[in-house]
TrEMBL record:
The lineage of its organism: Bacteria, Bacillati, Actinomycetota, Actinomycetes, Streptosporangiales. It comes from [Actinomadura] parvosata subsp. kistnae. One of several proteins that assist in the late maturation steps of the functional core of the 30S ribosomal subunit. Helps release RbfA from mature subunits. May play a role in the assembly of ribosomal proteins into the subunit. Circularly permuted GTPase that catalyzes slow GTP hydrolysis, GTPase activity is stimulated by the 30S ribosomal subunit. It comes from the Bacteria. Its cofactor is Zn(2+). InterPro entries: G_CP_dom, P-loop_NTPase, Ribosome_biogen_GTPase_RsgA, RsgA_GTPase_dom. This is Small ribosomal subunit biogenesis GTPase RsgA. The gene is rsgA. GO terms for biological process: ribosomal small subunit biogenesis.
Length: 358
């Protein structure tokens, strides 16, 4: 039976379930309360509890950039009181992770426990196929379901060709044409959202405007875009989780200028599924899809069945993902070496102290 603590029932609008309640049993016994992280900034986090939001501290037992640092969307065990403190995080069922902006080996969790990733792209600018492929890899790797939303339909005369192009890049993914100005398909999108949804996309795509319509009020800051290139300023400066009027929650995120992949091999396989399928029919198992005889991928390109740009993009993202993985492996090796050195140093100091004793 789930825990019958009535204090936690108010969290249901933020996604609290009986399964989470059962998983929280040991934390209840320790006097902790469940909370969902809605925002992280300035070394603190806003934690939503059944009795309302609280600004809470959290420990930093992990190095900077650790994937285990609290982030928006996390479920947490909170020690209540005059100075609330996040004691532990519940296991995540999904996480959107990219390589850090510094292109170090660290990953950055953009949002946790997400069910739907809304990829927002503006129809007012040409569709960037490579950027869409990156965003799709990010979404699929997280374990969530992507939905592509083409915004600002009121600013263009013929949005259908763009939708067809997006559908070709993302088989099996819903593609919606929307307009906040006219309300086109906003209700369809609202009905499509389930559980926790996150808005991803570049600055100027209209994410915050779309979010305000979905939320039913002007909660998120919006801004204008430059006429010459359709790019916008970062009006959203942090990730924030808010409840939707029809149920579920929405996470708005700052515009993504850099979308570097981090351990996204499965996501890439999903995005480029047609290349993976073709590769299975190559003569050689280690075919590089270049000049090898019997290459099914090159045969599909020659027959006009596969755009060559698609293969170039696939190779580029594979190289990038492999590079990030190698950097991560090297960092982990260095951390193990440093840890071993620290232990050895401590033992030597202990032995010297012991030898000096009478």
């Amino acid at each position: 039976m789930p825990h019958t603590n009535t204090d936690s029932s108010g969290l249901s609008r933020y996604g609290w379930t009986d399964a989470l309640d059962r998983a929280f049993t040991e934390h209840y016994e320790a006097g902790l309360v469940p909370a969902r992280i809605s925002r992280v900034d300035r070394g603190l986090c806003t934690a939503i509890t059944a009795s309302g939001p609280a600004r809470a501290t959290f420990a930093a037992p992990h190095p900077p950039g650790s994937l285990l640092t609290p982030c928006t969307g996390d479920w947490a065990a909170l020690r209540p009181g005059a100075e609330p403190h996040v004691v532990a995080l519940l296991p995540r069922h999904s996480a959107i992770v990219r390589s850090s902006a510094s292109r170090s080996s660290h990953g950055q969790v953009l949002a946790a426990n997400v069910d739907t990733v809304v990829i927002a792209l503006s129809l007012a600018t040409p569709l960037d196929a490579a950027k869409l492929e990156r965003l799709l890899a990010l979404a699929w790797e997280s374990g969530a379901q992507p939905v592509i939303v083409l915004t600002k339909a009121d600013l263009v005369d013929a949005p259908e060709p763009v939708r067809a192009e997006a559908e070709a890049l993302a088989p099996g993914v819903d593609v919606l044409i929307t307009s906040v100005a006219t309300g086109q398909n906003v209700d369809v999108l609202a009905a499509r959202l389930r559980g926790t949804s996150v808005l991803l996309g570049p600055s100027g795509a209209g994410k915050s405007s779309l979010g305000n319509v979905l939320l039913g009020e002007e909660v998120l800051a919006t801004g204008t875009v430059r006429a010459q290139d359709g790019k916008g300023r970062h009006t959203t400066v942090r990730r924030e989780l808010l409840p939707l009027p029809g149920g579920g929650v929405l996470i708005d995120t700052p515009g993504l200028r850099g979308i570097s992949l981090h351990d996204a091999a499965d996501g890439l396989e999903q995005v480029f599924a047609e290349i993976e399928d073709l590769a299975a029919h190559c003569r050689f198992g280690d075919c590089g899809h270049d000049t090898e005889p019997g290459c099914a991928v090159q045969a599909a390109i020659a027959a006009g069945e596969l755009p060559e740009r698609r293969l170039r993009s696939y190779r580029k993202l594979q190289r990038e993902n492999a590079w990030a993985a190698s950097r991560t492996d090297a960092r982990l090796r260095d951390e193990r070496v440093q840890q071993k050195k620290a232990i050895t140093s401590h033992l030597r100091a202990t032995y010297r102290f012991r030898d000096r004793q009478p």
